[in-house]
Design a protein that fits this description.
Blueprint lengths: L3 E4 L4 H11 L4 E3 L15 H16 L3 E10 L6 E2 L12 H11 L9 E11 L5 E12 L15 E3 L14 H4 L1 H13 L2
Parallel strand pairs: 1-2, 1-3
Antiparallel strand pairs: 3-4, 3-5, 5-6, 6-7
Helix pairs in contact: 1-5
The chain binds inosinic acid (IMP).
Length: 193
């Protein structure tokens, strides 16, 4: 029998990807709609993943799966990092965040635009135990947007393993090499061992 986990994320873009990656590996239970969004004010990706999973576990009594992701850009000292969702402002759209990123990297040549996405994926169980896995993908930040799929910073992230395409030009092929795909597959391997 597949493990049953309630999805802690309230972000439909992330939920779509989580469902695609874990299809046939885990039975995902949707997050109850009436639950308020969890405030992600932790200092690390792991803190934020735990805040989300614990909140949903407490509300449902069911083992909860969360993930938290940050984009770390070397030329910006690791920013936006844990602040990736609110890089431009508290209510920033994906577009606003990408705009700010491109602006802050203006004049930086391609070879110095190195970056990585990092994901922490976590399951918190009712007995207090937790399982944590990570996933990373290395790449560079493009000088302009390319592609219309995916979400967030996908139009400007060019993974080294992606034949020069941005994540937003890849569709589901993204999951094979992405931070989230890797973290979730690592997590499932740990759950089944
Ligand atoms: P979260 O804290 O995991 O929800 O992610 C923080 C922010 O990182 C999101 O609001 C997106 O802007 C960005 N992000 C997360 N995952 C991805 C991804 O797979 N591609 C592009 N951007 C992402």
């Amino acid at each position: 029998m597949l493990p049953e986990l309630v999805v802690a994320s309230a972000n439909p873009d992330k939920v779509k990807e989580i469902s695609e990656v874990l299809d046939g590996l885990v039975t995902l239970i949707p997050r109850p709609e009436e639950l308020p969004e969890v405030v992600e004010d932790g200092d690390t990706l792991e803190d934020n993943a735990r805040l989300k999973a614990k909140a949903i576990l407490e509300a449902t009594g069911i083992a909860a799966l969360s993930d938290d992701t940050g984009l770390s850009v070397d030329a910006l000292g690791g920013d936006p990092g844990v602040h990736s969702a609110r890089y431009s402002s508290e209510s920033a759209s994906y577009y606003d965040n990408v705009e700010k990123l491109l602006k802050n990297l203006e004049g930086i040549p391609p070879r110095l635009r190195t970056a990585r996405f990092q994901t922490v994926a976590m399951v918190c169980y009712p007995d207090g135990t937790e399982v944590i896995a990570t996933g990373v993908v290395e790449g560079t930040i493009a000088e302009s947007r390319k592609g219309s799929e995916g979400f967030g910073y996908d139009p400007v992230f060019i993974p080294y393993e992606g034949r020069g395409l941005s994540f937003a030009e890849m569709g589901e092929e993204k999951h094979r090499i992405s931070h989230r795909g890797r973290a979730l597959r690592n997590l499932v391997e740990m759950l089944s061992s």
